[in-house]
Amino acid sequence: MAIPRVSSNHDSIIQDSWARCREFGLDPQSRPAFGKLPEQHVAQLLERHHSLVQTTHQQVLPFYENILSNSNCLILLADQQGQVLNSWGTKRFVEPAQSQGFVPGATWVEQATGTNAIGTALACEQAVHIEHDEHFLKANRFMTGSASPIFDADRRMIAVLDVSSDSFLPPSHTLGMVKMMSQTIENRLILDQFQHHHFQLTFNTGLNNLDSQWAGLLVFDDSGKILCANRRADNLLGVSLLRVNIEDLFKAPVSQLLDQAEGQPFALQASGHNRFHCLLKRPKAQVVQLRTVPAPKPSLVNQPTALAALGLSDKKVAKAASQAQRLLEKNVPLLIHGETGVGKEVFVKALHQASSRAHQPLIAVNCAAIPSELVEAELFGYEKGAFTGAHHKGSIGLIRKADKGTLFLDEIGDMPLPVQARLLRVLQERCVQPLGSSELYPVDIRVISATHCSLREQVQTGHFRQDLYYRISGLNLELPPLRERTDKAALIQRIWDQHREPQQTAGFEPHVMALFERHPWPGNLRQLSNVIQVALALADDEAISSEHLPEDFFADLELGGELPQPNETLNGKATLASTEDLTELLQESGGNISQLAKKLGVSRNTLYKRLREKDL
pTM score, two decimals? Predict the structure, then answer.
């Protein structure tokens, strides 16, 4: 069966790469020259790219945990020189002779390793998918790879993100995933650089996909000058947005734009004929006072609260939302329990938006995502020169960034004990002392914590301080996992509506909804959201069918014993009880595995497995 191409210029990308490899003097039989940096140089390389690695870790980990964790794949981050910086996932598929190519410092440029996803993406500065036999060097043909460049706020290519595997994963799936992850990283890099002193405009074609990583993002100052934009914004507006004034793009003066209420969607007409839905975010540390008369504070009684939407019809979530809302202004610390991905951060955001601090910052800290040796610096800040690798200007730290607002400490059970002691002091004294400083800085924060583990058990084993536990657990709330929620169908519909494009109205095929209802969802709401986003990207304007679902979706069903066995009926259309059944079905589909898998409502990998079991 022919391998489907992922883009119209795919063949020319491979042909051009092979031509370059020949010009470099490479032989398909030769071994890749990954190189080996001395340990000191590797340490310097990682220190130089520390911020990029940390940002990538925070953005990539949810995708891996909820979409790719059951796939035999590895995510690699490489710098603009093709040198590996970090990896996530499994290296089990890597052949022993190639293992040195998957460690920090190894290089994947075409000159040394031939046609490959990382090196070829660097060479052509676009996302690419390289199949097994498309690698120039035969030694690399044990794997496939999809890679996408990462650009910084100035549109300079600074890195490449890659997903490699030895499986026959659909090219469109892995390429779509790596594009999605790289766009998420680019958006985060832009926000980290500009969010404190400049305005942000998020816009998209639909009201329900404003929070998608595929939304356009503009950063501008109070004069309307655009300082930065993501590449999606270019695509939506059809122009390059660097050094352009926002009034040149939309039919509205800057003053009208800045008068929009933060967090409330509004519409803007582009200079062309397109109309976009938008959200405005004001700078966290506003330098210029734009209004002479302060805006009135929102009424908590009359203001519609985002908490109401969280409960839907599930009694447990509704109870948690009701209890939390009654304690909003009581300054009682909240501790939220729930599995990873159940929506703890979404719950906290709604809680913050419904409070009197809605127009102050909400700072979310994932204590499990920050390397243990950096937690103190990230939380409490540091003076310049406080430690090797510290930014030359120092840092105020995340706690001080939450001043007057809400501090959300997610996965607080993973916080190291020494940091717990410092945090306890901050919560008691309401003052922060940065690393390397003798100054104390007062902070006014509302603290909400969350954990997926039992903090009581951690207290008993000595892994969590008892005094800190009682300081953060004024009210304990439990958010149920997705598999236990009674409003699953409504959640699926809502998340589909949030991420679909306006023209995507076909919804789901009935057997897909049945699979969704039976799925164990180990990654909970986060996994559901990612699965639906991938499915929408692959389905275009069609109804979502089984062939649009990630392979890991079916792997989870198989692990949970939910998929029909070979002697059971699949979707009431056919049985796999015998070799004759499969042979007949294959003939009817003309040998098209994808078509047959779709008909049976299973993944291609599952069908391949059944075929191997029957020696077909």
Answer: 0.54
